[in-house]
Amino acid sequence: MEKDFEVLVIGAGVVGLSIAYELSKKYLVGLIEKNKKYGLETSSRNSEVIHSGIHYPTGSLKAKLCVQGNELLYEFLKENNILHKKTGKLTVAVEQKEVEEIERLYKQGIENRVPDIKIIEKNEIKKLASEIEGICALYTGSTGILNVHYLMDCLYEKFINNGGIAGFDEKVINIEKKNGLYLIETEKDKYYSEVVINSAGLYAEEISNKLGFKYDIYWAKGDYFTISKKVDIPLLIYPVPVKEGLGIHLTPRFDGFLRAGPDVEYVQKVYPPYPNQKENSIFKVDEKKKEFFYKQIRKFLPNIEIEDLIPESYGIRPKLQKKGESFKDFVIKEEISGFINLIGIDSPGLTCCLSIAKYVKNLIS
Ligand SMILES: Cc1cc2nc3c(=O)[nH]c(=O)nc-3n(C[C@H](O)[C@H](O)[C@H](O)COP(=O)(O)OP(=O)(O)OC[C@H]3O[C@@H](n4cnc5c(N)ncnc54)[C@H](O)[C@@H]3O)c2cc1C
Predict the structure, then answer these.
(1) Which structural domain, as residue segments, surrounds residue 200?
(2) Which of the listed residues 347, 351, 355 should we mutate to test ligand 1's pocket, taking the one with most ligand atoms within 8 A of CB?
(3) Where are the beta strands (DSSP E) in the chain?
(4) Is residue 359 in some structural domain?
């Protein structure tokens, strides 16, 4: 039995593309994607924020890969002339009881070796973003924004230039180990590979379960609204984080408007995959959330009206934690020889795409 690939990556989101590109420098790599193009799911439905790494418990994979990934990503974006901006970010305390959390995040940031962070007072907040109200804030200089579509275009092109082979419109329906190789069956074809990497995002548990490694992924939707009024806020503005997410925040877009969101709403999983499911209510922005968004944003940006909020987009996070549970780390591991699982790659998965790729490379070499 002849192998078709040395490595086969399942899933062409930003993480699968990064892994495929990194490994194609050394191996013959196949990339299989069920949609007609790469990056049509979670990877093109997020805040496009390059996170600094302050939010994750020290020593966690998320903390380490985020700090490394932040640096690698800026280098890559610069080298390849991809639209991005190191804007910086403020996490703003609006009430006295939130100040303690700002101090905790600062300490955690220092322990995680996040560069360029400091706590600033009200008057300094005003200098950076005059419309923002707050008692104090944590400033992180390494936070920024990027255009994820251009990033994915670049990763894909480099992968193909390295001799990588991609198959689109090919859903993986079965995997088994046969005579020392993995047999990967899609709806169209069969492939043999020495190594299989499961980077299937929201559906990674399905792939993993086929080889007997059981995980439960929960879907947590996030909606976004655009603020249609032009407000001059050049950096990211976050509230003090809530248990299940980072809170409704403001991200400057490249067109000069602000994007508000995402919230966190646990939803039922829906099959088949989501670009074809427009009729289902989880696949559109819930306009009823406008009032909630307005109330949250007004805490630090009082000078807007509810009419300024326009429904924009949504994304769905693959989470390992159930509703109400606290932090769960990424799972990135070789389950059995040659089978690498990536499970629960929610935020900061985009920031970590290149550091995850290097981490996976080390697992197989
Ligand atoms: C609302 C929201 C906001 C976010 N904001 C940020 C942020 O600002 N910064 C940040 O760093 N991260 C952010 N994230 C997280 C980030 O978007 C994800 O971690 C990242 O996009 C995950 O990429 P991925 O390649 O693992 O998954 P995906 O993009 O989901 O890709 C997985 C791919 O696998 C394919 N696939 C699935 N099953 C099969 C199968 N059986 N056969 C073949 N192909 C299959 C899918 O079609 C899909 O294309 C956010 C996420 C959400 C939802």
Answers:
(1) 5-44+149-216+327-364
(2) 347
(3) 5-10, 29-32, 49-50, 84-85, 89-93, 117-121, 136-140, 144-146, 165-167, 172-178, 181-186, 190-198, 218-227, 236-239, 249-252, 258-261, 265-267, 309-319, 331-336, 339-343
(4) yes
